[in-house]
Design brief:
CATH architecture of the largest domain: 3-Layer(aba) Sandwich
Number of helices: 8
CATH class of the largest domain: Alpha Beta
CATH topology of the largest domain: Rossmann fold
Largest sheet: 10 strands, mixed
Number of domains: 2
CATH superfamily of the largest domain: Class I glutamine amidotransferase (GATase) domain
Helix content: 10-25%
């Protein structure tokens, strides 16, 4: 038997938040078994890649088997795993191994079906019932290319709060075959464009179902062909990694961890410390369009407990009704692939819609957006004025945690528990930095006694939630 075990390796609201989602105190990591060893695709590369993505999330204790026929037949304690992650498309496992696998799933062990695992085991009826949508006669794909995956069902833990996947590089399966009247629930689709060799139809890319007591997550994404290193881009896309992590956690537990366990809420202790919510998670109360008395009529909406601006939706910048002087602000955010936005503070009121001027905490997909190469424009910077120290970003599609602290003589930015900006407010160094920035003609930049908190319409998609603030005395 060939199996490998991979080692992965707040003060209430103000606790340092790490870049990876981790189990809550007292919770153990979820044991998962990644099943590889045979595939018509490059499983020698993809199986370890899947294991790394799961392990790096901090949620899972990962075991790999490259000999599932032996391990599944000999291991009498398969129920100890929270989920099986299938990266397998090869010979049958044998009667004993197959029955133990099915028995474990019927008993509640989850399953993640990745890409060509839906090609496997033609004629094994129970496996086909378990997967539901299979690569069988008539199934195909066009050329490898980048495409969007649209979330069509948000009333599920995997997709709740998950933006669409943008420009994901992959092979797009079409005409997957429904098997044996098995029920499938499609959560996300992609357009199979005729010009790339597709069908012209919307094809399922994120699917869930059940098999006995077991939860099944299925994505046909994740194509990597042997001797074609460029195709590894499918797995290297952190949007795909995040989807696999979310799907596998749901398959194992029925829930998905993404950011604060109770977003848009405050504990009794936090209220006692003076924290207040600036966004209630369900309405735009307390916000208006910058330069207007009313909220934006387009572009902005409340989705899954988040203030969301849709790419290209317009609507303009939005600001809080109230103004604040010295404060500590905390919030969670995510942008779509290549996205750019910002949270601004000490924003001054204007009589008509115009550019929102104020200190900006940059929200950015550093890895895809060109500004990510400039530390003065990178995520967590005081945009164009002071550079951000390097801090780990969560995968695209997962929530980051940020803090801004404004005191009379100092400003700090924090990103996922890392202090990225720590500067004296006012004084010679401040004056020089502002004079060398695009804000050199903005009077009293960053020195106003009070101002609004604002979220930028930078034409990209941004999700913000758990926006809370406490005022400081100095």
């Amino acid at each position: 038997m060939h199996s490998t075990l991979l080692a992965s390796g707040s003060l209430a609201l103000l606790a340092a938040v790490t870049a990876a989602a981790v189990p809550a105190p007292g919770e153990e990591k979820i044991p998962v078994l990644v099943i590889g060893g045979a595939n018509n695709h490059d499983c020698e590369w993809t199986t370890p890649a899947l294991a790394r993505a799961l392990s790096t999330s901090g949620l899972f204790q990962v075991t790999i088997t490259e000999d599932p026929a032996t391990m599944l037949a000999e291991d009498a304690e398969l129920a100890r795993f929270g989920a099986f992650v299938l990266d397998y498309n090869g010979p049958r496992w044998g009667e004993i191994a197959e029955e133990r696998f099915l028995s474990a799933v019927r008993g509640g062990v989850g399953v993640s079906i990745i890409h060509a695992a839906n090609n496997a085991f033609g004629g094994w009826v129970e496996y086909e019932k378990l997967v539901g949508l299979m690569w069988r006669e008539g199934t195909g794909h066009g050329r490898f290319h980048s495409f969007d995956v649209q979330i069509t069902d948000r009333n599920h833990p995997i997709t709740r709060g998950l933006p669409d996947l943008r420009a994901h590089p992959d092979e797009l399966y079409h005409r997957l075959v429904p098997m044996h009247d098995a029920e499938n629930r499609v959560l996300g689709v992609a357009h199979s464009a005729e010009e790339t060799g597709g069908t012209g139809a919307q094809e399922p890319m994120i699917v869930v179902k059940s098999y006995g007591a077991g939860r099944v997550f299925h994505t046909p994404l994740g194509h990597v062909w042997r001797d074609t290193p460029a195709s590894r881009a499918s797995h290297e896309d952190d949007q795909f990694q995040n989807l696999v992590v979310r799907g596998t956690e749901w398959a194992a537990t029925g829930r998905v961890s993404d950011g604060l366990a109770k977003p848009n809420s405050l504990s009794a202790a936090e209220r006692e410390e003076g924290w207040r919510l600036l966004f209630d998670g369900s309405s735009t109360a307390g916000w208006h369009r910058h330069g207007s008395d009313a909220f934006a009529v387009q572009g902005w909406s409340v989705i899954d407990g988040c203030l969301v601006h849709r790419a290209g939706g317009g609507g303009g910048d939005i600001v809080t009704d109230d103004q604040f002087g010295l404060f500590e602000l905390a919030f969670e955010w995510k942008v779509t692939a290549g996205g750019n936005s910002g949270v601004k503070y000490l924003v001054q009121s204007v009589e008509r819609p115009s550019a929102m001027l104020g200190c900006e905490y940059q929200l950015l997909d550093d890895s895809r957006h060109g500004d990510g190469n400039d530390r003065e424009h990178a995520a967590g910077s005081l945009y164009d004025v002071f550079p951000a120290a390097k801090a780990p970003l969560r995968p695209t599609g997962a929530f980051n945690h940020s803090r801004i602290v404004v005191r009379s003589e100092r400003i700090q930015h924090w990103l996922n528990g890392v202090l990225t900006v720590d500067v004296a407010r006012g004084g010679a160094a401040w004056e020089v930095a502002v004079a060398e920035s695009k804000f050199r003609r903005t009077a009293s930049f960053g020195l106003h006694e009070r101002g609004h908190i604002g979220i930028q319409d930078h034409h990209d998609e941004v999700w913000v939630r758990s926006i809370r603030l406490r005022e400081l005395e100095r």
